[in-house]
Amino acid sequence: YPGLQINITNYEVNVNGNSINLTKKEIEILWLLASYPGKVFSREHLLNSVWGYEYFGDARTVDTHIKRLRSKINVSENLTWDIKTIWGIGYKFEVKI
Q1: C or N: which end of the chain has fewer Cβ atoms within 10 Å?
Q2: 85 in Cβ contact with 28 (< 8 Å)
Q3: CB 31, CB 17: distance < 8 Å
Q4: What pTM does this model have?
Q5: Residue pair 30/50 in contact by the 8 Å Cβ criterion
Q6: Could you read off the pLDDT of 28-65 as tens digits, one per residue?
Q7: Which of 78, 28, 70 is nearest to 49 (CA)?
């Protein structure tokens, strides 16, 4: 997507040419969401996909990671994509037209 580069192999993310310091989980969440633009992922699905089925924590940890991810990326009006909250369900990677 314009302005976004995710290298999942090296766990590197660049936004508008700037390297963004993200945690492993934040990068995995972003990669998963960006791999399926427009698809809504529930918190439980994100937990299972990123943390694994053995994770016994609260599903709200996803909310915390998304909040940190958004603040680090600092999505501006110049970008054509965003991470949207779908209230009561989860999150999706939205590409703006």
Answers
A1: C
A2: no
A3: no
A4: 0.89
A5: no
A6: 999 999 999 999 999 989 998 998 866 666 767 899 99
A7: 28
CA quadruple 20, 25, 26, 30: dihedral sign: positive
Tokens of 25: 């989980």
pLDDT tens for 4-36 read: 999 999 999 999 888 999 999 999 999 999 999
**CA 16 to mean position of chain CA atoms:** 16
Report d(CA 82, CA 80) in Å as an integer.
7
Length of the chain (residues): 97
19's tokens? 């390297």
Residue 79 identity? L
| Sequence-separated (6 or more) residues with CB below 8 Å from residue 76 | 16
Contacts of 32 (CB under 8 A, 6+ apart): 41, 46, 49, 50
